[in-house]
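Support case: iron/sulfur cluster complex. Customer-provided input:
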Amino acid sequence: MYKIIETKDYEPLSVLFHDNGLEVKICKEIPDTALKLWKCEDENGDLIAACQLGKRRGYFVLESLAVDPAYRGDGLGGKLLRLAEKEAFLRGAKEIWLVAKVPEYYKRFAWKTVPSAEAPDISKCQHCAQFEETCHPAIMKKYLYSCIHCGVGNCDHMDKKYPDFCLTKHMDPFLKEEAIALYDNEENRDIMVAAAQIEYEYYCKMTRVEETVEFCRRMHYNKIGIATCVGLLHEANIFARILRNHGLEVTGIACKAGTVAKHEVGIPVECEAIGENMCNPILQAKKLNAEHTDFNVVIGLCVGHDSLFYKYSQAPVTTLLTKDRVLGHNPVAALYLSKSYYNKIMESD
Ligand code: SF4
Ligand code: SF4
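Agent response - structure generated as follows:
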């Protein structure tokens, strides 16, 4: 067991950084550039890892990160790295920099090497006589912004400018190639083609129920499985009638089928106060798998239960109804109201 805490006691950290080969002088005073320091101690209170986030010439920099060799491989460095990245983000950083002697380590966390000619002045290394002569540390950057921070969506119509952090601009070509190659799979290609054709032909003309029926028809699905919440049997029944009216065979299973008490799978017994039996999404998936359904439709499975259903369903899955007990199964209403009547949703814990 270990714990990670913020610290202002710099000297032991400087020793750890120094002893692990970083260009750090052992001293008591926290460097002027440092913004925040974290230390990680084992159960005896011994220092086993540390991390320093700093700011140099306006750039957020991961200045030092070291893990005692005896504790490497346990994900400790990654945890400290994420703490520093999160702190930089909360302080307004769009990107964070570092200079790495072992760039492969940081590549695992989506850091990219930047040619030194394109890098800002963020490290002593860049002023060292040995830099890129006998010593070759990599200058690396990670964008902390992603598509969710994008205000232009230029990857859609390509009529504006890509933002500097754009995922299209910085896409890993191997990752992209790997994804594109998967559309050679016959089922994947057929699904993509059918979905695209429906979007094109019925854009803003069909409801999702109608689109689902049309998708089944184009995919030549015959047998449809419905994995429903027991509280939405009425809706599942109506949907099944619609599917049958379009010539499809339908079977369904409710979340409580099998009646297993919650405590039997380790759910705390107090959760039985709102219902003794657990939802059983794995059983729902297994039952529909056993029935060899061609396509499964989720109706209102709870958050997490739906995840398990998706995980264990052998047939492709779509969601017709996303349960929201408060908002009439329209969860996005919470987002629309987040700047007005329901702004409490933006508060942190
Ligand atoms: S470039 Fe110079 S300061 Fe940087 S690691 Fe190499 S020798 Fe040390
Ligand atoms: S890929 Fe680029 S342009 Fe598209 S949403 Fe992401 S950041 Fe924006």
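The chain has three domains: 2-157, 172-205, 220-346.

Case will auto-close in a few days if no follow-up is received.
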